[in-house]
């Protein structure tokens, strides 16, 4: 396993990004308490920035957990925008609904329980697609969802460096899935793709037409 970002750098960056929002702090505490994977605050801030720049009308998340990444998207979109959350766990979705209700953002959310990819296929003209489901599904998700994207859409994927395993000889299904996805997106001429070595790697792909 390769360390992507020196912990001292992460500590420094977090020191530049203090947060007092109760909902955010509560979700971060829940993630730590349950050892539940979330994108963490530094990636959340990136999601917020990209959303503010793109100003999407429709954000679809494939894999939302209990709503941490969705919170950053919902906080950034306009009041006419919508974020579609998907998760297989009714408990996660119920918790997210409660948090967004308390945050006053609930009108910007659509909560869906079930298979993320099946749900995602129901939408069209997606301005921002966020991929964070099982890693072996990443390429399948991209292939299924690209025809459903709006012009000049953004595709953002978490865990694009997968704890550094993509650069090693590991060949388990999850690592192989991430490698195949990265190669697939990087090779497409209709997208401009880069991977930011932030936390566990964040892929950002811009649809050129």
Automatic annotation (TrEMBL):
Source organism, top-level taxon: Bacteria
Organism, scientific name: Geobacter metallireducens
Keyword Phosphoprotein: no
Transmembrane segments: none
Lineage: Bacteria, Pseudomonadati, Thermodesulfobacteriota, Desulfuromonadia, Geobacterales
Keyword tags: Methyltransferase, S-adenosyl-L-methionine, Transferase
Keyword Transport: no
GO-annotated molecular function: O-methyltransferase activity
GO BP, one annotated term: methylation
Name of one Pfam family that matches: Methyltransf_3
Stored InterPro entries: SAM-dependent_MTases_sf, SAM_O-MeTrfase
Protein name: O-methyltransferase
Gene3D superfamilies assigned: Vaccinia Virus protein VP39
